[in-house]
Amino acid sequence: MTNRYALKLGTAISTGALMLGLLAPAAYAAELEISGNGTSSNNNITVTETTTANLTQKNKTSVNMTLNATANTGNNSANNNTGGNTTIDTGNATANVLVVVTGGSNEATLNDCGCPESTDSALISGNGDSSSNNITKTKTKTANKKQKTKTKVKGSAKAKAKTGNNDASGNTNGTTDVLTGNGNATVDLTVEGGTNTLNP
Question: Where does the secretion signal sit in this chain (predicted)?
Answer without folding.
Answer: 1-29
